[in-house]
Design a protein that fits this description.
Elements (H helix, E strand, L loop, with lengths): L27 H25 L7 H24 L9 H22 E2 L4 H17 L1 E4 L2 E4 L3 H12 L4 E2 L13 H21 L2 H21 L5 H6 L4 H10 L10 H20 L5 H51 L1
Antiparallel strand pairs: 1-4, 2-3
Helix pairs in contact: 1-3, 1-6, 2-3, 2-4, 3-4, 3-5, 4-5, 5-11, 6-9, 7-10, 10-11
Length: about 350
């Protein structure tokens, strides 16, 4: 009887390599700004619902947050699997998860606070989904990485206003409906103080604020001079409202969707002001949100055009170098033969 050759043991399957560590989403300075921004807007909402007169349902901020958190986490998991890396909310415990959700927290609370859709809570949830989800769709190359270029909460608000004409922004009076003097003066002063501290020390967006505020004054005066039935003082009076102060200090200055260089900040802030003047002169309501969305879209197109131009120039330079190397090699070969 022939002996059977023993079958060699199957070597153990090597463990799968660990997923690549995700690059940090934000630097330390930006995270600090996001934490303070999130804390500020949370306190603002608590006071708004308990004292000042916010008119949305008391449960709506929690529904907005649940929607924003869910969309952010699900899209991050999908993106991590697609890019072969670990999700950014892992690796630093509960604190890492909280820091990861800060942008979604700010976007969700801001969108709910600044829109009024009657009792149609699904419309508000749709706006939050669009605002958070757009960060994964509308992106442009910045310093070698794809980054979103549309201001999330502003974009979500603009989409709601376009798709649901019966919807509106929150009435400006609800920011101080249940308070009187001097509290209704103290509220905007406090917002300006803390907003200035935040933008001067952390986001470095004071050039943008200056260009936006200065441009707003100019467009109000120009509209008053050109259009007969426009009051210059009426156009300027909008600047005294809490909604304008909030927009100036906490929305248009979003560090993720606004430029960082001073000249670029001036162009961005001034561009929003000019666009607002044009839209308002055309009797288009809610121009402040549409103007911001339009300028963000223009900036995104510029970033893509700049990236394509740089890549084209790099390819042309590489081809020139190859041709020069080939020509030099030919000359050296002829010299060697001689």
């Amino acid at each position: 009887m022939a002996e059977q050759t023993p079958t060699p043991p199957t070597p153990p399957t090597p463990p799968a390599p660990p997923a690549a560590k995700a690059p940090p989403r934000h630097d330390a300075k930006t995270i600090t700004a996001l934490r303070r921004f999130a804390l500020s807007i949370t306190i603002f909402n608590i006071l708004g619902y308990s004292w000042w007169g916010f008119e949305q349902g008391f449960a709506w901020p929690f529904v907005a947050l649940a929607t924003g958190y869910t969309v952010e986490i699900v899209l991050e998991i999908i993106g991590a699997r697609t890019e072969g890396r670990a999700p950014r909310f892992r690796g630093n415990g509960f604190r890492g998860l909280v820091d990861f959700l800060l942008p979604a927290h700010i976007t969700s609370v801001a969108l709910n606070m600044l829109t009024y859709v009657n009792d149609q809570i699904l419309v508000m949830m749709f706006g939050v989904t669009v605002a958070v989800g757009a960060k994964w769709v509308l992106r442009a190359p910045v310093r070698g990485r794809l980054r979103h270029f549309m201001n999330p909460s502003n974009f979500g608000i603009a989409v709601i206003l376009i798709l649901f004409p019966w919807a509106s922004i929150a009435p400006p009076y609800h920011f101080s409906e249940h308070v009187g003097n001097p509290v209704d003066w103290i509220i905007p002063l406090v917002i300006i103080f803390f907003g200035t501290m935040l933008n001067a020390k952390l986001t470095n967006r004071m050039w943008l604020i200056g260009a936006w505020v200065g441009g707003f004054v100019v467009q109000a005066v120009v509209r008053g001079l050109i259009i007969d039935d426009i009051s210059i003082l009426g156009g300027l009076s909008m600047m005294t409202g809490i909604a304008f102060v909030l927009f100036t200090n906490y929305m248009i200055t979003d560090p993720g969707t606004s430029p960082s260089k001073p000249l670029s900040q001036i162009a961005f802030g001034g561009g929003v002001a000019v666009m607002y003047g044009v839209l308002t002169g055309m009797n288009i309501p809610y121009g402040i949100f549409f103007a911001t969305a339009a300028v963000c879209l223009i900036r995104g197109g510029y970033l893509w055009a700049l990236d394509i131009s740089l890549k084209t120039r790099a390819k042309e330079a590489e081809q020139v170098q190859k041709q020069a190397a080939q020509a030099l090699a030919g000359v050296q070969g002829e010299a060697a033969k001689a």
